[in-house]
Structures are given as C-alpha cells and as structure tokens.
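Summary for the funding panel

The consortium committed to producing paired sequence-structure records for every protein in the target list. Below we show the first two records in order, beginning with the earlier of the two.
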Amino acid sequence: MTESAASAQSPFNPATHRVERVLCFAAHPDDIDFAAAGTIAAWTAAGVQVSYCIMTDGDAGGFDPAHRAEIIVLRAAEQRRAAELVGVTDIHYLHERDGYLEPTHEVMKGVVKLIREVRPDVVLAMHPERNWNRIQKSHPDHLAVGEAVTRAVYPAVENPFAYPELAEAGLAAYKLPWLWLYAGPEERENHFVDVTDHVATKLDAIHVHVSQHPDVAAMEVAVRNGMLANARRGSLADGRSAEAFHVVAVNGPGTIAGF
C-alpha cells in the first residue's frame, strides 16, 4: 500500500509499523465504505485481516417509504456485498437502534469484548469530535461511535479489572497499538493513504448501498473530489486520490500506562 503521511505529524510509518489485523467500527452500514474502503481494499490485498463492527442496524436510513419494513435486512445485505468487494467477510453488529446510539457502558463493553477477541493492530473508528465544516459527517451516532470506542480503547481494553466478567470468560486484557479515526475535523487529520489504485473498488462498494443514494451522480462526484482534496492536503502528486485519518498511537515501546 502506497502511503504518504504528513510525516511531521503522523506517528504511523507504514515502512516500519506492521499491520496484520484491523477492526473497523462504524455507526451505520455504508459509513466505512465512504470513509475507508480504499484503505481497506489495499490492506486486504496485502493480506491484512479486516473485520467490521456496525453498531446500529441502520433502521432509520433510506429514502423510500416502501423499504421501511425490510430496511434492516436490506442494509445488512448491502453491507455484506460492499464488504466482500474490498475483501472483508467478518462483520459484527451490536444491533443498537439507529439514531439512538450512546456511549453507554453496555456499548463500551461490547466494544471491549470484540477488541479483545480480535486483538487487532489497528482499530479504525469514527471521530468523537464534530466536524463543523461539514456537519453531515457528524451524525450523533457517528460521534457516539467515536466516544464509545475511544473510551473503550483506553483504559478498558487494557485494564484487566475493567468489565471483569470478560477476563473471567477468557478474554484477557490487550494493549492496542493504534487507533485510526475517520470523519472528523480536517485539522485533526494527520495521515493520508494513497488509494488511487482502489478508487474504482471504493466507488463500487459505495454504489452497493443503493437504498441510501437519492442522487448517485452527485454522490460520486463528491466522493471523487473529496479524495483528490485529501491527496492535495497530504502532499501527494497531482491527480492522486487519498483517504484521511487522525492516527493516534495508543501503545508503543515508550508508552507508560496507568489506569
């Protein structure tokens, strides 16, 4: 995977930091595809194991009233097909109600449980901070994902005394190396992944979510322009496309942990 980071800012160096397993959290089916499908396609092409956790069923999404009775089943099928296009087959749901997601201890415990099960090198999640430049990125469910995952990542995932029933069930505490956040404020983004070779796959994955796109042409233009703008901000060559993240080093050689 070709990556260009704002190297003075990003703590992640793809040349030296190995990624073998990734766990991605999102609020709704299609969130991951809009934000990170290109990066995920590059990871899986390189042999990285990627899993998804969708926190709600997306039951408040869509535009056609005729879809209401079947929207949960429809969106799950869309997410499954979109994930397969980028090499992902392991998808988990927390089955929270769309529009009502909160960073409760029940949700956080579910996040801790899954991270301890998967034990990823990278957790990818929505950003807990609101994007005032494009508030649509900051659906309340998105912010709740970011807050729940960030709280879970530290300290609960690595604290053996947090949610002790998990340790008693055999899920030992785990020190996560990296947290990658997406859909946050641009000023927080410090890492840019060149996904030029995976733009078509990303768009194919987004197009699968047909229940969510009342204007497909406008959506595609916006996505393409957004990736080109990311590449410019990341100092990639003209004409390249990129996805942008706020990368946080959680645990490394110099980390001093304390609960």
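The next record, for a separate protein in the list, is shown here:
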Amino acid sequence: MSASPVTGSNVTASPDPARQLLRHTLATIAYRGGKALRGSPDQFGSFHIGDKTRTPAQILAHMGDLFDWALSIAQGEQAWHDSTPLSWNAEVDRFFSALEKFDDYLASSEPLHGSAEGLFQGPVADALSHIGQIAMLRRLAGSPILGENYFKADIAAGSVGLNQAVPRREFE
C-alpha cells in the first residue's frame, strides 16, 4: 500500500486502471445526477416541453436501462430493455440501484466481458448527456440547480448513492 498524494490515506493500486476510472466516472454520475434529481418539484417527472421530447421520468428510466445494460455487458450476457417509467421517486431509486449494481460488479474480481472503453463510450457517456438534459429541464421547469466547480467536488469511486458529499463551491 502507498499513501495517496491527494487524501493521504492508504490505498491499494488497482490492477486495472481503466476499471478504476470507470468506477470514478460512476461516482461522478452519482454526484452530478444526485444534484440534478434532489429537490425537484413534485410534478417534475412529468414535465414536458414538446411532443418529440422525453419527460424527466422517461429520461431517468432510460438511464436506469443504460446501467442495467452496462452490467449485462460486463457480465457477458448483453441484454437491453426499454422500461416503462415508474413514479418519479421509484425511478430515482431504480437509477441509483442500477448504478450501484454496476459499480459493485466493477469493484469485484469478476471478469469484465466488455471493454472498459466500450462501456465508457456507450452507456456511461450516454448517462452523462442525460444528466445534462435533466439539469436543463430543471431550469426550464423553474427549479434550476446551482452551478458548481466540479473539479473541487468530493467525488470518490464507490460513492454511487443518492446521498452525496455537500458541494464545496457552488455559484449562481
């Protein structure tokens, strides 16, 4: 073990840096996603801006599907499902549950059957785009989230639940 130059804690170097970067990216998704989802208005899940756009609940259901798909790829049994959106709160729970299951698999010693690069460029990067959509819809719904210096955010691999660290530097 060696001391981490950032935190000073003892950490074991990962045998697979790409897998560790994926885990940090999932923690980033949880942090940014949690910020976009927390404190949303009661009817936000059904907010609609046009006939050819998804509601926030539809976007969030798709994000849950993305992480179910990512896990199936990682396990070597690729499967895609288009889920019908649940209630907003149930969909929030489902999203974080799917994120946690995928992160748990990445943290395990189980083999990664899909490439880390493919997982990043497919489901993971897609989820980052959708978090931006939800943040934009929050603003359009009259309930914007505060901007933040995300470089200073306390984000760590394995932290993939709804409850995240308090923002260090927000601004309007």
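Regarding this second record: Strands lie at 2-3, 10-11, 147-148, 170-171. The radius of gyration is 17 Å.
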